[in-house]
Design brief:
Length: about 230
């Protein structure tokens, strides 16, 4: 038993000793950035690609020079339009396709921080980020297609409030103990919500039909953020 006590003590002492360093501190954390984003899962929103803008506010603890924990709040705004095409000699013969999405959301996250490189002066750290979060917001998407030759068109979309669990994974670099650069992917794991789904079509005779349902509405898809971080 004494052997295991000594072994545990010998493993823990370096941890506490490094936790007493200037780098092993608790700091207020703020980050701002953006990057590419994809429409939400399901339906056809995932066919749209756009952009995301994000803000992070939180607090970080470095237990030592290599391991830390960071709870924070994220505020995201996303929008995109893609797949637009028009082919044909004139409008009556052309085909048009479009995918559009947009959302605003708020979330809470907890990330583990792991440094795999620390320089001798401990003024530069490089490492990885792995965490989970939960969030929600309001958003929607629309998809439209038309066939000019057949003079037919159809459209579908959904909108409403949504929530989701998501995974955070990325890389980070910190210098001078205050400034940082992060590349962070936010990937949805599960989603839920309430809202309305709309479908409609127009045939060559000019007759239109539409339907409504309460299927799960749009929710955020994957986004990759390149962020500048500052710690106080």
């Amino acid at each position: 038993m004494k052997f295991f006590r000594y072994l545990a003590l010998s493993l823990m002492l370096p941890l506490f000793a490094s936790a007493a360093s200037d780098d092993a501190a608790s700091r207020f954390y703020f980050a701002i950035g953006g990057g590419p984003a994809w429409g939400g899962p399901g339906d056809r929103a995932h066919e749209a690609i756009g952009g995301a803008f994000g803000l992070h506010f939180g607090y970080g603890w470095m237990f030592n020079n290599y391991l830390g924990l960071r709870p924070y709040v994220n505020i995201d705004g996303r929008a995109g339009i893609t797949g637009i095409s028009a082919n044909g000699i004139d409008q009556n013969q052309g085909n048009t396709n479009a995918r559009v999405f947009g959302s605003a959301s708020l979330g809470f996250n907890v990330d583990m921080l792991a440094n795999f490189y620390v320089n001798e002066s401990r003024t530069f750290h490089a490492g990885g980020i792995l965490g989970v979060g939960v969030g929600g917001g309001y958003g929607g998407f629309a998809a439209a297609e038309s066939d000019g030759a057949a003079q037919r068109a159809n459209a579908e979309g959904s909108y409403g409030t949504f929530g989701h669990f998501h995974l955070n994974v990325g890389l980070k670099a910190t210098w001078n103990r205050k400034h940082g650069l992060e590349v962070l992917a936010r990937i949805p794991l599960a989603a839920w919500g309430s809202g309305e789904r709309v479908q409609g079509n127009l045939d060559s005779a000019g007759n239109s039909q539409s339907s409504y349902s309460n299927n799960r509405p749009y929710s955020n898809g994957t986004a990759i953020f390149v962020m500048y971080a500052y710690s106080i």
